[in-house]
Design a protein that fits this description.
Structural class: alpha+beta
Distance between the termini: 14 Å
Number of helices: 2
Keywords: Membrane, Transmembrane, Transmembrane helix
Radius of gyration: 12 Å
Shape: flat
Length: 47
């Protein structure tokens, strides 16, 4: 199966996470967009 990470926890992000779950994907995380994310981006490795 597919594993996904959704960037954005607003309405669209939550709808997409639910839709992907219904389509058979495994949602690993729903991330909140914030200014601190851009400082951490070089240290985040998504597999």
């Amino acid at each position: 199966g597919r594993e996904v990470v959704v960037l954005g926890s607003g309405d669209i992000g939550m709808i997409m996470a639910r839709r992907m779950t219904l389509e058979g994907a495994r949602v690993k995380a729903v991330l909140v967009i914030s200014i601190f994310f851009y400082y951490l981006l070089p240290f985040v490795y998504l597999v």
